[in-house]
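Hi all, a correction to my earlier message: I attached the wrong file for General substrate transporter. Here's the right sequence:
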Amino acid sequence: MPHLPFLTLLLFVMSFPSAFVSTAITTARHSSTISEEMRRTHGKTYEGEVTSYVIIACIIAASGGALFGYDNGITGGVISMPGFLEQFFPELLDPSSSQGGNQDPYCKYDSSVLEWLTSSLFIAGVFAALPAGYATRHWGRKKTMLLAGVLFDVGVLLTAGAMNITMLLCGRVLLGIAVAFASVSVTLYNSEMAPAHLRGRLNQIFQVILTLGVVLAQIINIWTGRFHPWGWRVSLGLAGVPAIVLTLGGIFLPDTPNSLIERGFEEEGRKVLQRIRGVQDVDDEFADIKAACVQANAVTNPWREILKRKSRPQLFVALTATFFQQWTGINTVIFYAPQLFISLGTGRRAALLATIVTGVVNHFATYVSLWAADSFGRRILFLEGGVQMLLALVGIGATLVLAGAQPMAAWIALFFMCFYICAYAWSWGPLPWLYAAEVQFLETRSAGQSIATLINLLFSFVIGQTYLSMLCVFKWGIFMFFAGMVLIMTVVVAAFYPETKGLPIEETPHVFADHWYAIWPLGITCV
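and the right structure:
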């Protein structure tokens, strides 16, 4: 594809650290990360090598992660900017009002309208998630990514140019639809394009770019905050940059071999497979994909199929992975961090600087998972991350209750936040999307990923709609609440999540056949 270098250059200009991803993965081509003995243990191996073509394609597709990451990073800072509050929420700045005059630091930003604004993106994504699954199966992963990019650009125009709350909400609804379509299509795209032994690395580029979007958004908020009263419009408008990259990717990138073959384009699928594997002899992998497609095309209703006994274990782990991802408490740390630090008396600029620190830690800790997921496996990272996050959340809660609402407490909490974010970034941040995509049968893969996305966005909405109120009621106890959720999810992983590293994607769903709950009393079986 002659257009790939141009797209890569555009993405590099947008975010130069993503080049480190390519460097790290290219180095992996000459390493022995996955031994031949390990590959034989896990099952089939196919001819081919890690090509620069597949790396570039996955990086460009993963720019979809920046849509969600940038929005998460930018929104928390924007809703604390005086210019934005003057335009849409003047009562929060009015000392004489019940909200503006609230001296309880935990209740300073408790506004139901503000909660609806931040969470409107998520509820729109909930309603878009299932149609996104239909689109990826019938239109292909590529066209769905293109649609996501276009919708996000339109949403950006509405939010950046908003003159009233209705226009702002309409823009965020479009952003939510775009995020849902990108979340479903990009993770499927990278999982199917990647060779088995590097699927963890290439899939998680989505999370690397997502966290990069958070960092860039936080830095941009520091810069635009100086331009009162219109700086918030610049912050929101720059969200269109990653959307343009994804749109161009949807135009020029090839679709995945699995999607092409499933939709009847067998010769085109074979050519793409040869290109991304770097060899002409792809007969074994092509035959396995084709066999999976024959089985997939025999299924006329994947939504009914995914509820059948053989697909229930895969559905269970996909749903719980993305469900628990939101109940880790990450949104309390990333999304509302500026409000939390301001509430503790650090000042708005210091609060934004502190959130940049958490964003940088989040981004660079994600690189650990790029290597560790394919070396140590998904399961061990889930478990280690859960234990570390549990300790960190208890530390934050204890700091706030012992030190009180004062600036010193904010800086001690910042240490525990960074400890927490490191664990999240190399475990529960990237792995749920990888795990949910790779465990599904081809015939239910689009449906399964769209349901997993629906669950993730649904509970993002629930948390976005209730967090400020919960913070006002529970105060420091909110962190203890999420610590309890982390404990529960760590137990669930230990009991129900089998290891999937190194397996070809069409072989991965069968790992559940050997799991203890394949024949448990509820009747779940993989045979």
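Sorry for the mix-up. DSSP finds 26 helices and no strands in the chain.
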